[in-house]
Amino acid sequence: MGAGRDRGARASARPPARTAPPPPAPVTTQPQPAAPIDIAGEVSQLHQALIDEVPHLIIDTPRGKWEWIARSWAAVNANGLTIDRPQLLVVVDRNPRVQQMRLILAQAQGDWDDLGGTKVSTGQVGRFDHFLTPTGVFLHTAAILDWRAEGTFNAHHVRGLGESGMRIWDFGWQQAVRGWRSHTKISKMRLLLHATDPDTLAHRLGRAASKGCIRIPEAMDVFLDRHGVLDANYEQAAQHNPRFPAVLQPDRAPTPLAGNALVVIDSSQPS
């Protein structure tokens, strides 16, 4: 999947015409907000915030944008996720030769867009107790409460979940392929999206290195947290359940384009 550095490229792409069979029963997201959203204005602000707040941000060429959008659109439809309002998706490509994520604007009507992204690390096969990160659409809902890293070191003197205070998004128990022995047996693993140790593990981002969870740069962790990119359901729950404001940043500035979907694809496999 191509990636470039053309910061001036603002091209977006409309998802390709549907040729696949009808998707499974839809999974609904948040209801349409009462007030209309200035989508173009909000996307422009978020894009600039990404540039300002996330070092080494990857900005795709028009061709690269088209590829990310096309694969994201295919995964959304194949997994029955209904896009009933403009929202952001966190899309991760577990292809060993890619190991990157993007923030994708998805819309029921109108063009989809690729705001940019970073390197990540997904599951490394060939080691005991390491899983191949599962593909699909995983919803971040109020059914599971996230938490924050304590910044403690493990036996190898590594902060596996990042520095103290880093947000950990919990997507629950998921079926995944074991990365050891048979390489075909399916077991359950806890799918998390989290930062990593900036001193010892951050340099490994861009290659498969985790036990199955998705490691992201610390700056991207802070960005997703501050702007509530995956917190559409959490913001609703926070209005009546005090456990959720305790997880959310008190000085956050949630985007009206917040969603709740993590999409994991594999560009090394046929769509």
Describe the structure.
The structure is a single chain. Helices cover 17% and strands 21% of the residues. It is α+β, with helices and mostly antiparallel strands and 271 residues long. A hairpin with a 6-residue loop joins strand 1 and strand 2. It is globular, with a radius of gyration of 18 Å. It starts with 38 loop residues before the first helix and ends in a 6-residue tail after the last strand. Mean pLDDT is 88; it is low at 1-12 and 18-32.
Percent of residues in helical segments? 10-25%
Apparent shape = globular
End-to-end CA span: 13 Å
Question: With helices defined by DSSP (H or I, 4 residues minimum), what is the helix count?
Answer: 4
Biggest β-sheet, characterized? 5 strands, mixed
One letter per element, helices H and strands E, the order comes to: HHEEEEEEEEEHHE
**Arrangement of strands in the largest sheet:** 3-2-1-10-5
Number of strands: 10
- Strand pairing plus helix content: what structural class? alpha+beta
